[in-house]
Write a structure and sequence with these properties.
Part of the nuclear pore complex (NPC). Its main location: nucleus. It is a single chain. This protein is mostly helical. 64% of the residues lie in helices and 0% in strands. Helix 2 crosses helix 8 and helix 16 runs antiparallel to helix 17. The protein is globular.
């Protein structure tokens, strides 16, 4: 990313090394906030492109290694602190023991919870939109991601990524003792019937926040329906769903070839043909 490199060069010699997050510190000036917002815009672009390693490297180069740690807390590109990952990344035996004792995926869920709390807290304090989106993307908090998605591709990516992440964590939770009871599909569907204001403890301290689960599509058809809803996505995204190439794309995603062919024929066939068919 040339823009990211140019901005980093401009910041060199001007930015002091930030070794911990303290956004309310007296030294956090307006110009520093602008630099952070510029950095986070580039980080968001990298994450959208699936380039997590470049996003982390950019944070470190900008003197914010702690921010890189929030993106990849278990080292490099490992998103789950397995024992193999901890050993590979030089983590201590104490961390390895914690992961073994607390159960599969426990540390990952703690990280997800922290990202969820960060995205909500920053939003409540009217923080930077890119910082909100970056943290929200790590925990499937669609309510905070979708305002940043002003085109069809971005919104579709956000929903698909969030849905996949939740399904992965559901599978990890099933590997826990009693997981089939605590975190099954029935519990996921029942969560839709509960109010959005339900307490975070409703699913237990280790489970996924209900506020996040309720935002997820339940299947591909549901995902595409959400893309049509202006209550869920940006109005530009909803309008894009009416475009012919998007309709073809969505039918291909569903594998509904007959319906897609019917749509194409209705677009290219002459009006007289439709009038004749109607009279018949």
């Amino acid at each position: 990313m040339w823009d990211a490199g140019e901005r980093l060069e401009e910041r060199k010699g001007q930015t002091t090394l930030v070794t911990f997050p303290n956004l309310s510190s007296p030294g956090h000036s307006g110009s520093t906030k602008k630099q952070d917002e510029s950095l986070l815009e580039d980080v968001w672009t990298f994450l959208r492109a699936g380039r997590l390693e470049e996003a982390c490297n950019l944070c470190r180069s900008a003197g914010q290694p702690w921010r890189a740690a929030t993106l990849s807390p278990f080292g490099r590109l490992d998103q789950k602190p397995s024992i193999e990952a901890l050993i590979k990344n030089g983590k201590t035996r104490a961390l390895q023991a914690i992961e073994l004792e607390t159960g599969i995926g426990h540390q990952r869920r703690l990280w997800k919870w922290a990202c969820y709390c960060a995205s909500e807290r920053i939003a409540e304090q009217d923080g930077g939109k890119y910082e909100i989106a970056v943290y929200a993307a790590q925990c499937s908090n669609l309510k905070r991601i979708l305002p940043m998605c002003t085109n069809w591709e971005s919104a579709c990516w956000a929903m698909a990524k969030s849905w996949l992440d939740v399904l992965v964590d559901m599978e990890l939770a099933r590997l826990q003792p009693g997981g089939n009871i605590q975190f099954n599909e029935e519990a996921l569907d029942q969560s839709l019937e509960q109010e959005n204001g339900v307490t975070q403890s409703a699913m237990g301290p280790d489970s996924w926040p209900l506020q996040v689960m309720n935002q997820q599509p339940r299947h591909l058809t549901s995902l595409l329906q959400k893309l049509h809803s202006i209550d869920t996505v940006h109005e530009v995204v909803a309008r894009s769903c009416k475009e012919q190439h998007r309709q073809i794309e969505m039918n291909l995603m569903l594998g509904d070839i007959p319906h897609m062919l019917g749509l194409i024929w209705s677009w290219i066939s002459p009006v007289e043909y439709h009038e004749t068919m109607f009279r018949k």
